[in-house]
Design a protein that fits this description.
Shape: globular
Helix content: 40-55%
Radius of gyration: 18 Å
């Protein structure tokens, strides 16, 4: 297989959550592979920092502030990108929210917040971008699932429910949109320390438990996600759609 099959030169990518703890690595990784990349979130200042890093790599970017669960904002933004960049080839949906509470202590407001960020935003953003991809003959969408898509993690009920939904939504999107040349896959990160979960995963006893159960013996690093995302976005994965790819150091394979 030629290295050129992983080349994203000339592609335009939107990374929702693209300036967060893991999103920055994915945004700059896609840019290093050749794509013009726009990091998307409500935090314009942080997005501008990542956009500047992308431009230092010789790619185009744009500093924006968009609420990914607000259909009107998303549709206006997508139209602006089409006007300025001409096409959208890659959409990465990786915005995330987490509330660590037992189910009986979880409020409806907390449930709605996590569902809006983790699941509704994927529905809204994908539905805004897919018609543009359809009109241009195809594209690649990569959603972010989680270990919570597969496991019942205590004190993470709404998170697991939302990420289980991401896995199933990915499969339906792939099945419905394949005829339009749109491939839809998901990445399911294992245990990665981010600002979102640092207070929990940073506890020594938790770290020992998780890393001892992970065959590769460590937490993930943000850069560990770049290769899988670039692969799923690239021509190298042109016959891959509808999968949920764990990037977990073997965590899900460990049975004893």
């Amino acid at each position: 297989m030629a290295v050129s099959q992983f080349d994203l030169t000339g592609k335009v990518a939107l990374v929702v959550g693209g300036s967060g703890g893991l999103g920055t690595a994915v945004s700059t990784g896609l840019a290093a592979a050749g794509a013009d990349v726009i990091p998307v979130s409500r935090n314009r200042e942080r997005n501008a920092e990542v956009a500047a890093a992308i431009e230092k790599l010789g790619r185009r970017s744009k500093a924006v502030s968009v609420d990914a669960a607000d259909r009107e904002q998303v549709e206006q933004f997508v139209d602006q990108v089409m006007d300025e960049f001409g096409h959208i080839d890659i959409l990465v949906n990786m915005a995330g929210a987490l509330v660590k509470k037992p189910l009986l202590e979880l409020s409806e407001a907390e449930w709605d917040k996590v569902m809006n960020v983790n699941l509704k935003a994927i529905f809204v953003f994908s539905n805004a971008v897919a018609p543009k991809m359809q009109a241009q003959g195809g594209g690649a969408i990569i959603n972010f699932a989680s270990m919570g898509s597969f496991l019942g993690i205590t004190r993470s009920g709404v998170y697991c429910a939302s990420k289980g939904g991401v896995a199933q939504l990915t499969k339906v999107q792939a099945a419905e949109w394949a005829k339009h040349g749109i491939r839809v896959n998901a990445v399911a990160p294992g245990w990665f320390k981010t600002p979102l979960n640092q207070a929990f995963l940073g506890q020594p006893e938790v770290e020992k438990t998780i890393t001892s159960r992970t065959p590769l013996g460590r937490y993930g690093k943000p850069t560990d996600l770049v290769g899988p995302v670039v692969f799923l976005a690239s021509p190298a994965a042109e016959f891959v759609t509808g999968i949920v790819l764990p990037v977990d150091g073997g965590y899900l394979s460990y049975a004893i």
